[in-house]
Write a structure and sequence with these properties.
37% helix, 8 helices, Chloramphenicol Acetyltransferase, two-stranded antiparallel ribbon, alpha+beta, 9 strands
Length: 212
Amino acid sequence: MHDFERRRDRYEHFQKMASPSVTLCFPLNLPDFRPWCKAQGLAPFHVLLYAVLHAVAKLENFRYRVFDGDVIRIDKLRPAYTVVNQHNDLNFAQFDWSDDLREFVARSVQARDEASQMTGLNPAYQAMSPRECKDQVFITCIPWLDFTSIEHPVPANAGHDIPALAWGKFRYAGGGRLHLPFSVQAHHGFVDGFHIHQLAQQIEQELTDLMR
């Protein structure tokens, strides 16, 4: 937590504000990993989810949370993301972490299928304790839209400490590159624009390393 103590005064500054969040929406520039996914028999969304969460886990500023009135640093991430059920209503998929890509994707696909068959909100998701909730990053994908902005809801009587990430429609940009709208919302006491830049760079690096 040494790195956090260095910026505790920034945290206290933004924590006093009605909304301490910073949100940036931008076109994320990535290598076009879709042909590699097709060759490997892996769905691009789940591979990108793997890359995004591994990038988040490597950047300490995205691992700070507020719990019991103080700042903590989480040691693990619990993958979760939004899905659409058979009635086109939102639900939450959730599964246990794996460092192995194929196992991660298999668990993610199973969690998606289970959550998409539920009419009510996922009971396992709702049953998480307040501390367990802190191990998340809120993730949503809007693959139908090339959006330019987004605002995520924040739980009542809770901090803005859990980052919320969103991405939209893939667009081939030529030269083996891919663009997609990407949004990062995080507590400004923990995350600045530079850290969001680092996250974008790390996601690209994770995908590049996977395809080697």
